[in-house]
Design a protein that fits this description.
Blueprint lengths: L29 H4 L5 H4 L15 H10 L4 H4 L5 H9 L9 E3 L12 E8 L15 H4 L5 E10 L4 E6 L5 E6 L3 E4 L8 H12 L5 E5 L1 H10 L3 E5 L3 E3 L4 E3 L3 E5 L1 H8 L5 E2 L19 H22 L4 H11 L3 E4 L4 H11 L9 E3 L2 E2 L7 E2 L2 E2 L5 E2 L3 H10 L20 E6 L6 H11 L3 E7 L10 E5 L4 H8 L2 E3 L1 E5 L10 E5 L3 E3 L2 H10 L36 E2 L3
Parallel strand pairs: 1-13, 2-7, 4-14, 19-20, 19-24, 21-23
Antiparallel strand pairs: 2-3, 3-4, 5-6, 7-13, 8-11, 8-26, 9-10, 9-12, 15-18, 16-17, 21-24, 22-25
Helix pairs in contact: 5-11, 5-12, 8-9, 8-11
């Protein structure tokens, strides 16, 4: 029926079990609350006043709470109820509720901006309650992938926020250490540091902090606010996530139902032309993970709106929200209380409904099960250039000629020496690409051929030596097709610091296309997600997805009331 039907999208392999976040109960009784430290006020009061509970009477505390009433945490999405949590618990010291771990590989901030990587963990063994609907630990094993990969960009200069989701099936060369190609979601199998490395090395997005939430955490967040309501234009069903909404209309979602919704990527729907309730005859959507991401973004908007409508400030409600959420979150050790407070103070007024929300554009190869270097990876999607680099620059608020990792200008082409190798087996391809890059001023040395690593289709890899990411980014921006960067010291040819290994569909951007991208990104402070087309042949691939796909007629949305 469609290429995604009856396919499983998670990898079942073995990995060491990671400990679940520790859970400690906290009592917000009047007596116990006096023992808590108000972080926000502590940061501003002299040292000799910081531990005096008499300095903050109840009226003053309530005023301070309402000052940060809009939860930035909701902005960081369902998963980062941390910062919004900071807005929710208004400075209560809940440090002991959060599980902090060491995460390595973070990059320096560019212009003071913070990029927070949010991962939705698929672990079953780390859950407090086992549930047959998503598989028991004993059935699935201790493996851990990332169901959701989202990056939150916070810019203190503009006081703006933006979100970028990366489809979990995106096939990249550095998903696992040792240049092991895999789907990007499999990076978490080797821990958060590897996921950080993969995103920085393959996409050039600098990461400063990490937040991880599991199934329990998501369910608890929604239940803590009493559920949320969403309007379903038509009945929908997903046999894999167990989502089942039999009737159209406004539906109140519990935490479990909400989780089923945002995990749905094999969605069937019942349009008005279908009269039977037999789901065998209901059509499948073709968007798969792209559709799921669009629904997740809409869910976040509705969740934020629901919290704002209900308001926060009731100690009982706040305690329930915080105590049920934070124990299920894992954050990097650098995301300290003071860092959280600074983020709350800086971005407490941001409205997620107005924040740009992007999805990294991808293309679906014309194979149902992808084979690479002798292994089968199931259904995958490929990055697309020049679209992806343009969207990443836009998401980060940088112009197209800027290195996204440092904020500095990219090196000029005539300062970059590289090699071009034919990796697709297409006759004369390397010479054609080399000629096109020379026209841009690049110094092309060695031009050669290697044995293709896939008998089906293949991405174009821009390999680079450590310390030469800017040079690789400058080269990648001039290529079109299914292109991705990769840090590697073993895949470089002829002692080059940058090597292009061509794939099935590879082209070189025209100078007019490059100029158009630069003009679109001249001012990125308030522009909507753009669309950039590629000049490379498609060879049976699906058209590239859009950075803002939008909702389909069957997707749920906010209720009218």
């Amino acid at each position: 029926m469609d290429q995604f039907k009856n396919k499983r999208y998670f990898d079942i392999t073995s990995s060491p079990k990671r400990p679940a976040a520790s859970r400690q109960n906290i009592n917000f009784s009047a007596n116990n609350r006096q023992a808590k430290v108000f972080l926000e006020s502590s940061a501003r009061r002299p040292n000799n006043e910081r531990h005096s509970s008499n300095n903050l009477n109840k009226t003053e505390a309530i005023k301070k709470r309402h000052k940060y009433r809009k939860p930035i945490l909701i902005i960081l999405a369902v998963f980062v109820l941390i910062i919004g949590g900071g807005g929710v618990f208004y400075g209560w010291s809940l440090n002991h509720l959060l599980k902090r771990i060491n995460v390595f590989g973070f990059s320096a901030s560019v212009g003071g901006a913070e990029n927070i990587l949010v991962a939705g963990s698929t672990t079953r063994c780390g859950l407090k309650f086992q549930n047959s609907q998503w598989g028991f630990c004993a059935q699935v094993g201790a493996d851990e992938n990332s169901d959701i990969i989202m990056i939150i960009h916070l810019d203190p200069q503009t006081h703006q926020m933006s979100l970028l989701s990366i489809p979990r099936d995106t096939f990249v060369p550095n998903a696992r250490s040792g240049n092991e190609s895999f789907k990007i979601d499999a990076a978490l199998y080797q821990g958060p540091s590897q996921l950080v490395n993969a995103i920085e090395e393959d996409f050039g997005i600098p990461i400063q902090h990490y937040v991880e939430v599991n199934f329990d955490g998501f369910v608890n967040i929604v239940n803590a606010i009493g559920g949320i309501e969403m309007d379903f234009p038509m009945p929908v069903y997903d046999a894999y996530s167990h989502l089942n909404v039999p009737n159209a209309g406004c539906v109140k979602l519990t935490g479990l139902t909400a989780l089923q919704l945002i995990r749905a990527r094999h969605l069937q729907y019942k349009p008005s032309s279908i009269t039977t309730n037999n789901k065998y005859y209901w059509p499948y959507e073709e968007q798969s993970d792209i559709g799921r991401i669009a629904r997740t973004h809409e869910f976040l908007r509705v969740l934020a709106s629901s919290v704002q409508k209900k308001g926060l400030g009731n100690p009982i409600t706040d305690e329930k929200l915080v105590s049920s959420t934070l124990p299920n979150l894992i954050v990097d050790s650098g995301l300290s209380d003071s860092t959280l407070i600074n983020l709350i103070q800086e971005f407490h007024s941001v409205n997620i409904g107005n924040a740009p929300q992007y999805t990294l554009p991808i293309a679906i190869p014309p194979v149902s099960s992808y084979e690479f270097e002798g292994e089968n990876f199931g259904s995958v999607v490929f990055p697309v250039e020049p679209t992806d680099q343009t969207i990443i620059n836009e998401f980060l608020g940088e112009s197209n000629g800027v290195n996204t990792m440092t904020g500095k200008r990219l090196p000029s082409p005539n300062s970059i020496s590289l090699s071009v190798v034919n990796g697709s087996g297409i006759n004369g391809q390397a010479a054609t690409i080399a000629s096109g890059l020379k026209n841009f001023g690049f110094k092309v040395g060695y031009v050669g051929t290697v044995i293709p690593v896939s008998s089906q289709v293949q991405e174009t890899y821009v390999y680079y030596e450590k310390g030469y990411e800017a040079q690789a980014e400058a080269v990648a921006k001039q290529l079109t097709g299914y292109v991705v960067m990769s840090l590697s010291s073993t895949k470089l040819s002829d002692n080059a610091t940058v090597s292009v290994v061509t794939g099935t569909s590879t082209g070189v951007a025209s100078k007019s296309m490059t100029s158009s991208q630069d003009s679109k990104l001249a001012n990125t402070s308030s522009i909507a997600p753009t669309t950039v087309t590629s000049s490379a042949p498609t060879n049976g691939f699906s058209p590239p997805s859009q950075a803002n796909e939008g909702l389909t007629p069957w997707d749920p949305r906010a209720c009218a009331n």
